[in-house]
Amino acid sequence: MSESLLFAILGFLVACLLGTVFASFLWRRAVTVTTRKIAEDENFAGLDEVADLKADLRAAQNTIGSKDREIGEAAAKTADLEAAIAEAKASGEGAAENL
C-alpha cells in the first residue's frame, strides 16, 4: 500500500516538473511573439509620424514658396518705383535748367 502511494506521489511530482518545463518554453514563446508585435506596432507608429512630418514639411515648403513669390513681386515693384523716382528727378532737373 505504501509503495503504491509513493509511486503516485512520484508520478505527481514528475508531472509537476514536466508542466513547469513546458510552461517555461510556452512563456518564452509568448514573450518573443509579444516583443515582435510591439516592435512592429512601433515601426508602424514611426511610419505614421514620418508621414505626418513629411506632410508638414510640404506645407511649410509651399508657404515658403508663396512668400518667396511675394518677395520677388515686392522687389520688382521697388525697382519700378526707383526707376520712376530717378526719371522724375531727371525730368525735374531738366525742367529747372530750362527756367
Tell me about this structure.
Helices cover 98% and strands 0% of the residues. By secondary structure, the protein is mainly alpha-helical. The longest helix is centred in the middle third of the chain and has 97 residues, at 2-98. The N and C termini lie far apart (145 Å).
Write the H/E string, N to C: H
Count the beta strands: 0
Described by the principal axes of the CA atoms, the overall outline is rod-shaped
Number of helices: 1
Structural class: mainly alpha
The average pLDDT value, as a whole number, equals 88
Radius of gyration: 42 Å
Distance between the termini: 145 Å
Major β-sheet annotation? none
Q: In percent terms, what proportion of residues is strand?
A: under 5%
Low-pLDDT regions: none
What percentage of residues falls in helices of 4 or more residues? over 70%
SSE layout:
Elements: H1 2-98
Provide a short characterization of the protein structure.
The chain has 99 residues and is an all-alpha fold. It has one helix at residues 2-98.
